[in-house]
Structure formats: C-alpha cells, structure tokens
Amino acid sequence: MSEDQFEQENASAAAYDSADTTNQPHESTANSTWSRMLAGNRRFAEGKPEHPWQDTTTRESLIDRQNPDAAVLSCSDSRVPPEIVFDAGLGDLFTVRTAGQILDDAVIASLEYAVVKLHVSLLVVLGHEGCGAIDMAAHELDDMIAATTDNAAGSLEAADAIDDLDERIAEAESIVLRSVGMSVWQARQAELDAHEDFERVHVAHTIEELVTRSEVIQDALAHDQLMIVGARYQLSTGKVEVLSF
Ligand SMILES: [Zn+2]
C-alpha cells in the first residue's frame, strides 16, 4: 500500500460510521480467533510448529486482498515476532511493533486502520519477559527519583516524597521514560516490584491509553465489533501468558 493510499484510507477511518453493521464481527469470532492463536502458540512452545499459510498458493491468493483475523501490538524485540510465536501465516495477523509497544499517533492510526478497514475483531497487546524498554524505563525512573531527592537508592519512600512525580514522568525528555515510566511507577506504588510485574502492568496501561486516545477503538468496543486482550510472551518457555485485569 502506498503512503497516499494509507493516508486516504486512514482519513476515512477517522470518519468511521459506528452505525455501519455491514461487516460486524461478533464476540464469538474474536474468541475463536484468540483460541486459534493460543493453539498456534502451544504448537510453537512445544516445538511442533506447522508454519501454516506460508506457501506460494497462499501468497498468490492474497495479492489483491487481505483479511487478517487479528491485530497485534507488540514489542519490536527480535525474539518476539508475533507470526512465529503464534505459528501464524501470511494474511493472518496485522502487526504493529515498537520498543516496549509504546503508543504514538502512527501506532494508533495503524491499529484504527486494522479495525475499520480490515475489520479485525481481535486486538492483542503483547508484552514480554525480559523487555529492554521496560528495564530502561525502570532505571531512568530510579535516576529521576534519585536526582530529585538526592537519594542514591531511588527508593519508593523517596519517590513518595515527590509531589509532582507523575508530571515529571509525563514531561520527561526520554520517550521511553515518558511512555513506560508511568507503568513502572504504578506497579511500584502497588508494591509490585518485579520486572515481570512492570511488564504486566505496562500491557494493562497500554490498553487503557489506547482506548482513551482512540475514539474509533472506543466505538468498535461499544458496538461489540472488537475485543482487546492483553498477554505476555515468556522467552523462557515460549508460551504466551494471558493477562486478566
Ligand atoms: Zn521489549
């Protein structure tokens, strides 16, 4: 797709008419898509991937159209490619990847395109074990707390003493701290101090922010045209952990 086409289609995505029910996916479609993806992940984790839909016939059948079942927003980490960990093929997943699955306008516009133009019924936000972006945000948050309080440990007590820490994070120069720091800070406030907790809270936080920032996605959710799930990929087992919030 050319950039022009993308801009045009995205402009019409913004003008999405929520009353349009010509291609309304149902919750059962989203659930069965998710079950299929998890079954693919089980095959992958067990070392028995089928590598489906990667043949020449499939490629040729998709020249003029695409009809993916799900959109996936995941980390750019080289160890977490959604098509591989879900054992999926050509045309199955519409993927958007940024370090730490950080949102920006381009990410949101891409996901809106998948919802409005490609009618995906499922959107998966996928974090993962050992996420470098989360690690970086946690360190930068400690540094910010230490620098603000003259407390080398960057402790929770010291952080609590900073009245405007939320604002400082929101206005931080570092994009990673600005985008992921609040997830780490919320987890620490809830006494969830392990990095895997930061990763889980960040998935929840990402979904919350995505819904807040996108009216298109709010509409699709309100009309049962979309289901959003949060998950965390475990590098150590190959399994995708389904998160509940
Ligand atoms: Zn990552």
Briefly, what is this?
The protein has helices spanning 3-14, 27-45, 56-61, 82-85, 105-116, 132-149, 156-160, 165-170, 175-189, 195-213, 215-222, and strands at 70-74, 93-97, 122-128, 227-233, 240-243. By secondary structure, the chain is of the alpha/beta class. Helix 1 packs across helix 5 (105-116), helix 6 (132-149) packs across helix 9 (175-189) and helix 9 crosses helix 10.
Note the topology.
Blueprint: H1 3-14, H2 27-45, H3 56-61, E1 70-74, H4 82-85, E2 93-97, H5 105-116, E3 122-128, H6 132-149, H7 156-160, H8 165-170, H9 175-189, H10 195-213, H11 215-222, E4 227-233, E5 240-243
Parallel strand pairs: 1-2, 1-3, 3-4
Antiparallel strand pairs: 4-5
Helix pairs in contact: 1-5, 6-9, 9-10
**What percentage of residues falls in helices of 4 or more residues?**
40-55%
Side by side, the strands of the main sheet go 2-1-3-4-5
Please state the average pLDDT score.
89
Poorly predicted sequence stretches spanning 5 or more consecutive residues: 1-24
* Rg: 19 Å
Fourth-level CATH superfamily of the largest domain: Carbonic anhydrase
Q: How many β-strand stretches?
A: 5
Number of helices: 11
Unique ligands: zinc ion
**In percent terms, what proportion of residues is strand?**
5-15%
- Report, as a whole number of angstroms, the end-to-end distance: 36 Å
Assembly of the depicted chains: single chain
Count of domain modules:
2
Order of helices and strands: HHHEHEHEHHHHHHEE
- CATH topology value of the largest domain: Beta-carbonic Anhydrase, Chain A
